[in-house]
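User: For my dataset I need records formatted as: sequence, then structure tokens, nothing else. Please produce one.
Assistant:
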Amino acid sequence: MKGTRQALLQELSSWIAELEIERPVRLGIDGVDASGKTTLANELVAPLQSLGRPVVRASIDGYHRPRSERYRLGRQSPEGYFRDSFNLEILISRLLGPLGPGGSRQIVRAVFDYRVDAPVDSIAESVAPNSILVFDGVFLHRPELIGYWDATIYLDVPFDISVLRAAQRDGWPPEVGAVENRRYVDGQRIYLRECNPRALASVVVDNADLDSPVITGVRAPFLHREQQSSRHAI
């Protein structure tokens, strides 16, 4: 049964706020391009703060590789999009690792601006132990990253809808099979085939209808799977 977007935000924020460990919680919001990841991440900030949890917002967009590395297999390469877009080593060392067990809690939210193809001035900051990192991005359930999340949300949106949204937002062609979309659509297909994020995510949300999203899957958060601690269900 479909609900309202406000109901989804209330349900998710209550569930996330109850994830309590002796360090910050690392929440990843995953999905194909234009599935609504950034929007949902931004929408969760205020309700989480109202529940007494400090929030750190960051995005995979702050961890792009330089253009020469991203396009080493060609500008239209789906394999290049999946394999070469992001500097996962720096993402782990500067953000996800320091928020993990025994971490320093000294983080950097972004290191690279892909729009100008240049590094950004990285200002380190200290994160409170009860904070929640709300991190959005593509490919978050890939093997290199899966062990660094305490909980994840996967936004499930079919390509015919996500590509149309990208066309309206970014000027992409609206056809899924358009050559200009091949890098992104087929790159995501590689990811879906190899990593199966729907089967791994703590929560799966059908976000095809932005006004009436539906939670379609719930699993124990990673922190509970690993620690076998008390369970918090939606």
